[in-house]
Amino acid sequence: MMNVTVDEIERDPLKYLHQVEAGETLVIVRSGKAIAELRPIASDKKLRPFGLCAGEFILPDDFDAPLPEDVLNAFEGK
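The chain above was modelled as a monomer; its predicted structure follows.
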Protein backbone atom coordinates (compact mmCIF):
# COMPACT_ATOMS: atom_id res chain seq x y z
CA MET A 1 0.00 0.00 0.00
CA MET A 2 1.34 3.38 -0.99
CA ASN A 3 0.33 6.88 0.16
CA VAL A 4 -0.15 9.44 -2.63
CA THR A 5 -1.20 13.06 -2.32
CA VAL A 6 -3.98 14.59 -4.39
CA ASP A 7 -1.39 16.92 -6.00
CA GLU A 8 0.75 13.96 -7.09
CA ILE A 9 -2.22 12.27 -8.72
CA GLU A 10 -3.24 15.50 -10.49
CA ARG A 11 0.28 15.86 -11.95
CA ASP A 12 0.48 12.36 -13.42
CA PRO A 13 -2.77 10.37 -13.09
CA LEU A 14 -1.78 7.70 -15.64
CA LYS A 15 1.32 6.81 -13.63
CA TYR A 16 -0.83 5.93 -10.63
CA LEU A 17 -3.50 4.17 -12.68
CA HIS A 18 -0.80 1.95 -14.17
CA GLN A 19 0.35 1.09 -10.64
CA VAL A 20 -3.21 0.16 -9.67
CA GLU A 21 -3.54 -1.98 -12.80
CA ALA A 22 -0.35 -3.76 -11.73
CA GLY A 23 -2.00 -4.67 -8.42
CA GLU A 24 -0.85 -1.81 -6.16
CA THR A 25 -3.29 -0.25 -3.66
CA LEU A 26 -2.99 3.52 -3.25
CA VAL A 27 -4.17 5.57 -0.28
CA ILE A 28 -4.98 9.12 -1.39
CA VAL A 29 -3.97 11.69 1.22
CA ARG A 30 -4.93 15.36 1.58
CA SER A 31 -3.40 17.52 4.33
CA GLY A 32 -1.92 14.42 5.93
CA LYS A 33 -5.31 12.70 6.20
CA ALA A 34 -6.30 9.60 4.22
CA ILE A 35 -9.41 10.41 2.17
CA ALA A 36 -9.71 7.50 -0.25
CA GLU A 37 -8.31 4.17 -1.27
CA LEU A 38 -7.72 3.27 -4.92
CA ARG A 39 -7.27 -0.43 -5.55
CA PRO A 40 -7.68 -2.92 -8.37
CA ILE A 41 -11.04 -4.60 -8.77
CA ALA A 42 -10.86 -8.16 -7.50
CA SER A 43 -11.52 -10.69 -10.20
CA ASP A 44 -14.25 -13.07 -9.12
CA LYS A 45 -14.15 -15.17 -12.24
CA LYS A 46 -13.81 -18.59 -10.67
CA LEU A 47 -14.36 -21.72 -12.68
CA ARG A 48 -17.35 -23.76 -11.67
CA PRO A 49 -16.46 -27.29 -10.62
CA PHE A 50 -17.21 -29.99 -13.18
CA GLY A 51 -20.27 -32.06 -12.31
CA LEU A 52 -21.70 -29.48 -9.92
CA CYS A 53 -25.28 -30.64 -10.56
CA ALA A 54 -24.55 -34.29 -11.23
CA GLY A 55 -27.66 -36.37 -10.52
CA GLU A 56 -29.90 -33.31 -10.03
CA PHE A 57 -31.87 -33.77 -13.24
CA ILE A 58 -32.26 -36.20 -16.12
CA LEU A 59 -32.00 -35.07 -19.72
CA PRO A 60 -34.88 -36.59 -21.70
CA ASP A 61 -34.08 -38.69 -24.77
CA ASP A 62 -36.08 -36.34 -27.02
CA PHE A 63 -34.31 -33.19 -25.77
CA ASP A 64 -33.13 -32.18 -29.26
CA ALA A 65 -36.23 -33.34 -31.12
CA PRO A 66 -38.04 -30.77 -33.27
CA LEU A 67 -40.67 -28.71 -31.45
CA PRO A 68 -44.35 -29.37 -32.12
CA GLU A 69 -45.94 -27.18 -34.78
CA ASP A 70 -48.16 -25.30 -32.29
CA VAL A 71 -45.14 -24.32 -30.15
CA LEU A 72 -43.21 -23.13 -33.21
CA ASN A 73 -46.22 -21.05 -34.29
CA ALA A 74 -46.44 -19.50 -30.83
CA PHE A 75 -42.78 -18.43 -31.05
CA GLU A 76 -43.39 -16.89 -34.46
CA GLY A 77 -46.55 -15.10 -33.30
CA LYS A 78 -48.89 -17.04 -35.60
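The helical segments are 6-11, 13-21, 69-75.
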